[in-house]
Design a protein that fits this description.
This protein has 244 residues and is of the alpha/beta class. The protein folds into 2 domains: 165 residues, Rossmann fold, CATH 3.40.50.300; 70 residues, no CATH class. Helix content is 35%, strand content 22%.
Length: 244
């Protein structure tokens, strides 16, 4: 599904590389958490996966080893939700479908279904300023899923939320993965979030950024993981790697 080989990224000749020799693969239906020091290039890597930025060298293949992006759809969720303040909740969710000129009946059906699935059906006619941060993030998730993407990319999607809301939305995202088996990549500063939401956890170094370690999270997929010993041991293990 995602194949990255030898990715390097430099913004100018004088500053040196941001990312250096990043290689990994992610199969369809799998999940990847990317964690590393602030400013190490996690968001830059995500943008390259989204085709919003190009690597200085190396290659990214999405959908197949030949990189057939045309046959694979990708959605991205940003830190600031990215909602249009002048559009209602339902209009924000429906936007991508309307851009694709989907039939009105499909737009209405998909929008209503996603809002109900995410528990915000009663907010359809409200504007972003009239709802909470957690509700705004649910709208952003619904909008990202409206086009039924093959891959969902997330750049610290819950970082601006309080701890309880953040955990609740992590549970929501995991439940949606269990239902849809959506391939997703999440960039995060939180070790706990990385462990809860990633079957594979990629730990990055400081600049020039390389992969320090890739860990398979055997406990991934359980809503009760936060209460289990293996969760705490995984969190401790990743902290040791990052501090080492």
């Amino acid at each position: 599904m995602i194949h990255a080989k030898g990715l390097c990224k430099a913004f100018d000749e004088n500053s040196g590389p941001v990312l250096e020799d990043i290689s990994f693969s992610l199969s369809a239906g799998e999940t990847l958490s990317i964690i590393g020091p602030s400013g190490c290039g996690k968001t830059t890597l995500l943008y390259m996966l989204a085709d919003l930025s190009q690597p200085t060298s190396g290659s990214i293949a999405i959908g197949s080893t030949q990189g057939d992006r045309a046959s694979c759809t990708t959605s991205i969720i940003l830190q600031n939700f990215g909602l249009f303040p002048w559009k209602t909740v339902s209009e924000n969710v429906a936007l991508a479908l309307k851009i694709r000129k989907a039939p009105k009946t499909v737009v209405a059906s998909v929008t209503a279904s996603l809002l109900e699935e995410l528990g915000i059906g009663t907010l359809a006619s409200r504007y972003p300023v009239q709802i909470s941060g957690g509700q705004q993030q649910r709208v952003a998730i619904a909008r990202a899923l409206a086009t039924d993407p093959d891959i969902l990319l997330m750049d610290e999607p819950f970082s601006a939320l309080d701890a309880m809301t953040r955990e609740h939305l992590q549970n929501t995202l995991l439940a949606m993965w269990q239902k849809r088996r959506l391939t997703y990549v999440i960039v995060t500063h939180s070790v706990e979030e990385a462990v809860f939401l990633g079957r594979t956890i990629m730990i990055l170094s400081d600049r020039p950024t390389r992969i320090r370690k890739v860990i398979t999270n055997e406990g991934f997929g359980s809503q009760a993981l936060r209460m289990e010993d293996q969760y705490f041991e995984m969190v401790r293990s990743i902290r040791r790697i990052m501090e080492g």
